[in-house]
């Protein structure tokens, strides 16, 4: 890990969006950070199945089989106090990970300690369930906008190409994988301030 590298927790689950797990993981490693990948019920050496969501002109995205994404940390022993930040990819994983009270407690730790939180696409569903979006601005995949608003947050409409990121204090959010350059750039800037 580089001298200024941070220790980041990435929460994933089966059918996490492939690009939103793989690409940020690789980008953050390239920038000198250490990334611990964790999933409830999984141990180091296990994998999660990913899904690739694409925008092909239909009323919603399409889903195709992705890759296997490696877990390198034991979720049951992860202590969020050991990490400088958390990253939450999208896909279908957030819809069921948000039902896990340990996941919500981890996310609340980062909110309560004002450590950087990055969430993309459907990842903000976990932020909603953790109750940390009240009076906060948040971008997400447009289908999650009603949840953000119902949780007391202010939904930030993404750019036409779904390629924008939004920062509200320690929170950086984005609508989908086309936003990776903006999202990871903003997240990296937050990490440098920690």
Describe the structure.
The chain has 194 residues and is of the alpha/beta class. The chain is built from six helices and eleven strands. The strands form three sheets. The protein has a six-stranded mixed sheet with strand order 3-1-6-7-11-10, sandwiched between helices. Strands 2-4-5 form a three-stranded mixed sheet, covered by helices on one side. Strand 10 and strand 11 form a beta hairpin. Helix 3 crosses helix 4. The longest helix is centred in the N-terminal third of the chain and has 13 residues. The two termini are 16 Å apart.
Task: Give a quick rundown of the structure.
The chain has 194 residues and is an alpha/beta fold. It is built from six helices and eleven strands. 29% of the residues lie in helices and 25% in strands.
- Provide the helix percentage: 25-40%
* Regions with little confidence, pLDDT below 50 for 5+ residues: none
Please state the overall shape, judged from the principal axes of the Cα atoms.
globular
Strand order of the largest sheet: 3-1-6-7-11-10
Class derived from helix and strand content: alpha/beta
What is the gyration radius calculated from CA atoms? 15 Å
What is the straight-line distance between the termini? 16 Å
Largest sheet: 6 strands, mixed
Estimate the strand proportion.
15-25%
Mean pLDDT: 96
- Count of DSSP-assigned helices: 6
E-strand count: 11
Note the run of SSEs as H and E: EEHEEEEHHEHEHEEEH
